[in-house]
Amino acid sequence: MLALVVVLGLVITAVAGWRVGQIEHQRNAALLDSRAEQAIGEITSRTAQLQTLLNSLNAYVQQAAEIDREPLMQFVRTLAQSQPLTGAQALYWIPRVADEDWPQLQHELGSLVTLADRADTSDQQPWHCPMLSLTANSPPIDACTEPALEKALEQARRSGALTVARLLREPLTPKGDGHDYMGLRWLASGPHEQAGWLALAVDAAPLFETGFLGQEQGSIAVYDISDGIEAAVQLTGEPTVLQPDESASGMHVRPFELYDFQFAVRVEDASSITAIAAFMTLGGVLSTTLITLFVGLSLRMRKRALALAAKMSSAAASSEQMLKSITDNIFEGIYRGEMDRGLTYVNPALARMFGFAKPEQMIAHAGPVLYADPEQRDDLARRLRQDGHYRDVEVEFVRPDGSHFIAVNNAVATRDEHGQVRYFDGVVYDITERKQAEQRAHHLAHYDSLTNLPNRALLDKRLRRLVEQARSTDTTLALMFLDLDNFKTINDSLGHEAGDELLKQAAARFRHTLRNDDLIARQGGDEFLIALDGADAEAADSSARRIIEAFSAPFRIQGHELRVTTSIGIAMFPTDGNSAEELVRNADAAMYAAKEDGRSTSRFYTEELNELAHRRLAMQNDLRRALEQQQLFLVYQPIIELASGRIVSAEALLRWQHPERGLVSPADFIPIAEQSGQIVAIGDWVIDQACRQLAQWDAAGLTRIRVSVNVSAIQFWRGQLLDHIQDSLQCHGIATDRLEVELTESVIMRDADTAAEIIARLRELGTPVAIDDFGTGYSSLSQLKRFQINKLKIDQSFIRDITFDPDDAAIVAAVLSIAANLRLDAIAEGVETHEQVEFLKALDCPHAQGYRFGRPMPPEEFAALLAVGHARVG
User: Fold this and answer.
1) Nearest to 396 by CA among 358, 432, 351, 440
2) What is the Cα–Cα distance from 691 to 326, expressed in whole angstroms?
3) How far apart, in Å, are the Cα atoms of 853 and each of 642, 742, 825, 828?
4) Residue 146: what pLDDT?
């Protein structure tokens, strides 16, 4: 048995020696392949760093206002300081310049260095490509004359992706130095609207040199085999020729690809496996005797050892699987890094954050993680060395493609026995969506969603800041309060969508007219505020005139051409107010004064306007109670037939009997009612009251006449005028032709198309329509045939001097002629004298109205006149 054990031991020893030699050979081959893989990884990481540099520079150029060589050079220096750029020789900006622009640029750049002694290529291609160095103030080079670059430039332009040109020591610079490769990135366009290439020149020797292998571990060399192994170009290592088949022991060749070029790494190991095999054989012989002694013991313990090993292996595998499941499936990014090597581990979530499909790609290709602020990265590294950690730091990272994202970064360091940071572990979670949501919330809270102008809340903050700044610097500040004239009319007639579009177009005109640093905000509704920092009264007046001029052009909205003006009130700091609140209040008062001056104008604030504003506010509040407390009433003025003196109709006129102020003139309260929007309710009440009075006169058996009511612009455009007229007529049993609607020229000419539609619907209802104050509007004579009107009321300004002013007489005669030809009735307003009556009779004017025939009178007094049936004419 013992002899059998000895023989068996020797056989096993021999087999083991042979097997160890074979295993050692395989291990050595695997080690060489691993070293080759490490070399390829290091080379790939360096090229990724250079690509990241190009992407960062591309992102910077895309956002720059213009392409300026000095800022670009400064940006490149900053990038170079923040990360190692092994192999990078020079960076260039290569604009693509057309022939017609070439002489001017050539004059600006001076002489160019022409490559490869080629002649001028202006007759071969319609552009030039001067290479402008971003890393040195060297003379520009014309890249379009370089054969090796010509094809790569065009490929980069067509693909839009990173393209690499292979130069391999063809001279490109005046010094005779050489670039081996050149990375090209096409920049299609930007704010500067200039196209060209970003180019990075690369020296192969430092880029492909691998420093992790020592001499005792063998040698390593890198070759460019893009043209085949027979034409391989050695880039690093001791001079050797690469054979097609490098399969000898201790030799390993590993091919790899970078940017469409083929390369190979050749690794040779100086160690030998013979001594190891011999030692194993000797050891086997010596140990054979010992084997026989422990065979029994080994057999007994084998089962126990295998069970223990299986248990430990299962526990380790379970722990490893659990840890891998956690790190692979959580949403937060996890990493480990070293101060001098960068990242050594990342989980899938972190790789995805940075735009990589797999963690291995990020470690191999990403290079140093780019911070939008390189100083922040240096500060975090300092905190790791000093404090050993940092927590909840918001960082803006840059991906290799140039895009940005915001994340919270945490890390803790592990130190060695000397107190130095050995490695650091960290967690990153992306908060880009949260930050964007915060920005959207901030924008919604401080900006008007319709016009995208600052809203009232943000305006208050900025205006307070401007006031404090003006106070501290002893400078002036102008605040303009703007209101769109007749906006409510347009909003009511065409709908809110048209009103919203008008507000957006108005905001655009404000921006286009004013300076970029002027504060423009929407106060609310159709009101805007503009703050002119440092402006005096003259500058404020000039800005107001420019705005009014900008609003002279019509607005085109929903197929309508609308003419909308603006009234502007101006208050100056510090003379008109010492705080933001005072300035807004006083500018508002000045704006109302501008409206009272005829609109489409501007007014500066005065102390008198403040008193007027208080009176206006008080009157507006009193007017709200006037309807409820029956303080409003109607009076009626007769309209007579000139030939007979017969009363044919009456005009209902609104009056206000204030309990304290007495009789308030319509000229005082009607504009306030229109500005506050109360005119709609008041107008509806007037229509209903006129119909009620007609019914009462009919019930008294008086002559049936027609009553005309004045309709304001807001009431006309609101879109419910017809419904209210029809309801009132039906309610009081009045025929539709006995209520007449009077409109001014300015109302119907604001939007002639829509006005014509509304008037046509009134006529379909049976309600007559008259144009009041005719002759004071614009372009109405040529537009008369578009409107289905019944009557023209000639404004009293033409009647007043008709007997001695030839121009007024001619105008009245012309209007009467037009009315007759169009078969329209005509009424002369404001007739007060016998001479005016006779003159109008001579012109065949059919009807008249004025103090000559009767003043506006209460319903009872008018009923008495109506009972007579006629008024004095002669």
Assistant:
1) 432
2) 84
3) 10, 20, 19, 12
4) 72
